[in-house]
Amino acid sequence: MSAYYIGIDIGSTAAKTVVLSGDAVAEAFTLPTGWSGKETAGTIRRTLEEKGYLTGDHRCTATGYGRVCVDWADRVVTEITCHGKGGWALFGRDCTIIDVGGQDTKVITVAGAQVKDFLMNDKCAAGTGKFIEVMASRLGVSLAEFYALAEQGAPLAISAMCTVFAESEVISHIGAGERREDIAAGIVHSVAGRVARLCERHGITGDVALTGGLCDSRYFIATLSGELGRPVASHPFARYAGALGAAIAAAGKDFAGVREFSL
What we know:
By secondary structure, this protein is of the alpha/beta class.
């Protein structure tokens, strides 16, 4: 029977799970974190049991905002370490990894699958994916619709550094009758600008790779590339980087290049 190495990344918005078998991803799925990380961890466990991954030889590592909720995991590891391992495995080279999460943004320098340095900004949500999610709701659209609007807009200035004041600026734009396309573009440029400034404080080594929930947005990637003045790479599996890194930690090995995906 194959050994299974399970990585669980419970973030503030979404919980990602990756199961490795050898050097291939046997399973990967996402659940909303909801109001209780403990309940989400229980749902993940039941799902893994139903799929047969908790029978026989298996090891589990938990990471992320709600990692302590996975009390049945063999170990917990910080998200910095897991995003470093997972990002290096996905991109297969030394680089600077940017993870824009729901409640914080991390800039991580990795070399040889090891984290060499990092900088994290969790003082305010204005530079995170949660701000975009809240603002999309304020505009009355889904995230997919929000990015589609932003691509058609001319960005309006949103200069406040605090989430509350930034939201007030957005409300003022809405009240002034500005186009939703222009407001959406301004919000994306605002978040990308904050992320770029965090990168400047940290310093960039090698190529730049994006992980986390915003890695699926071509518009955000293009905007961030423009703010940084250099291309930003992504990967179809990049939203799972933290969970993948946790699975690698469970396996007790580092490797570059995941052989196959099962999304």
